[in-house]
Amino acid sequence: MIDLLFQPWPWYVSGVLISLVLFLFFYYGENFGVSSNLETLCTIAGADKISDYFKKDWKSKKWSIVFLLGLIIGGFIAKTWLSASTVDLNPVTVQELESLGFLNAGETYVPTELFSMESLLSFKGFSLLLIAGVFIGFGTRYAGGCTSGHAITGLSNLQLPSLIAVIGFFIGGLFMTWVLFPLIFA
Predict the structure, then answer these.
(1) What is the pTM of this model?
(2) Domain boundaries, the chain
(3) CA trace torsion 35, 144, 134, 75 (10° rounding)
């Protein structure tokens, strides 16, 4: 039974589980997404003293903090005890990543060239993560939600703004992969 957890799950199992989670969110009148937690955390930390934007009832959003903690704990459990030893990447992708300097492509989920203490302490690594974080934070607020919120909740509600946001996310991902990524890591 435990071996089942180490294998990729087929789309029809994952899709049903995601639908079940969405149904529960809709049933209880909540939205699926992570980006609103930053607002809640800032409100808890006292940002309402600096900006009226954060004058909100954070106690009504306690469920989202529990959801976020569950994601963090679940990710830790999955990485620590349920991760496969290698990632099943297309050999062409592995070869292209290795040509860009990612020597452990196909061996781990996150490249050590970006996500290691050595990389974080370098100017390039720190700058890349800082700039990426600013872009993600700005884009999330500008789009009115994160990729999971728009792509899962918004599209399942047939919301046009979510469709536009998801198309923008997809175009941005393609631009990053095919244009910026080779320039940054060449």
Answers:
(1) 0.70
(2) 114-186
(3) 20
Burial (CB < 10 A; 0-12, 13-18, 19+), residue 140, is: buried
* Phi and psi at residue 92, to the nearest 5°: -65, -40
Percent of the chain residues past pLDDT 90, beyond the cut: 20
Residue with tokens 């047939």: 158
Span 67-121, pLDDT tens digits: 889 989 998 988 788 776 667 788 998 898 898 888 888 887 788 888 889 988 9
Residue 32 has pLDDT above 80, yes or no: no
Check if the beta carbon of residue 134 is closer than 8 Å to that of residue 126.
no
Convert 38-51 into a string of H (helix), E (strand) and C (coil). Answer: HHHHHHHCCHHHCC
The distance of Cα 94 from the centroid of its chain, to the nearest Å, equals 22
Please determine, for residue 8, whether its predicted confidence score (pLDDT) is greater than 80.
no
Token reading at 92:
């062409």
The more confident residue out of 80 and 7 is 80
